[in-house]
Amino acid sequence: MGIAVIATIRVKPGTAAEFEATFTALAQAVRANEPGNLVYQLTRSRTEADTYKVLEVYADEAAIAAHRDSAHFRGAGPALGAVLAGAPELELLDTVG
Amino acid sequence: MGIAVIATIRVKPGTAAEFEATFTALAQAVRANEPGNLVYQLTRSRTEADTYKVLEVYADEAAIAAHRDSAHFRGAGPALGAVLAGAPELELLDTVG
């Protein structure tokens, strides 16, 4: 089966628009270049300010490694790093069905 | 934009296989019958026993309503109710990009 990731991301106050633009571009690159990625969806919390959750599903461990090693993911690092309020919290789960 | 749901579900000890079979069939029906549903993925926690998270993405509120009113969702109610250890916890978020 596959692997899911829920990544909780908090951004610095006032940087939401910049973060969303950067991440949306990254998500487009992920969808276009990673056959092993099945879901890569940014979502915005309705209850916590400046808080996002990325819903991700990968076919297998190799697909996660390919994602992390990709030029588009690495390339987005500096711009994301500039607005993140801390390291993302990653929850890994196993997909069923 | 769309709407995402992270549904945390806990099942009674010893019912995981039954729950997974019931939910997998439900997920197949959702994917086959709900054009407004974009993601409906059951995942199993790696850290908490008998705990699952369903990653769901819908095009809009109408798609969520259609899901909740669907025969397949209502039809799975009794079988799911028999194995759930409590009401699911639902987190709604707004999709971005």
Describe the fold and architecture:
The structure is a homodimer of 97-residue chains. Chain A is of the alpha+beta class and 97 residues long. Chain A has a single domain, classed as 2-Layer Sandwich (Alpha-Beta Plaits). The first copy, chain A, has three helices and four strands, in the order βαββααβ. Chain A has a four-stranded antiparallel beta sheet, with helices on one face. Chains A and B meet through α1, β2, β3 and β4 of A and α1, β2, β3 and β4 of B.
Architecture blueprint of SSEs:
The structure is a homodimer of 97-residue chains.
Chain A: E1 3-10, H1 16-33, E2 37-45, E3 51-58, H2 61-69, H3 71-83, E4 89-96
Antiparallel strand pairs in A: 1-3, 1-4, 2-3
Helix pairs in contact in A: 1-3
What's the quick description here?
Two copies of one chain form a homodimer. Chain A is of the alpha+beta class and 97 residues long.
Keywords:
34% strand, globular, Alpha-Beta Plaits, 3 helices, homodimer, four-stranded antiparallel β-sheet, 97 residues, alpha+beta
- Count of individual beta strands of chain A: 4
Return the CATH topology of chain A.
Alpha-Beta Plaits
Order of helices and strands of chain A: EHEEHHE
Relative helix content of chain A: 40-55%
Specify which chain pair forms the largest interface. Answer: A-B, 26 and 26 residues
Which regions of chain A are unreliable across 5 or more consecutive residues at pLDDT < 50?
Answer: none
SS-based class of chain A? alpha+beta
Residue fraction in strands of chain A:
25-35%
Which oligomeric form is depicted? homodimer
Q: Which CATH class of chain A is shown?
A: Alpha Beta
Q: Assign the CATH architecture of chain A.
A: 2-Layer Sandwich
Main beta-sheet annotation of chain A:
4 strands, antiparallel
Note the gap between the termini of chain A: 8 Å
Over the alpha carbons, how many angstroms does the gyration radius of chain A reach?
13 Å
Shape descriptor of chain A reads: globular
- The number of distinct helices of chain A, counting runs of at least 4 residues, comes to 3
When the domains of chain A are counted, the total is 1
Strands side by side in the biggest sheet of chain A: 2-3-1-4
Mean pLDDT of chain A: 98
Protein name (chains A, B): Antibiotic biosynthesis monooxygenase
GO molecular function (chains A, B): monooxygenase activity
Domain ABM (chains A, B): 3-92
Pfam families (chains A, B): ABM
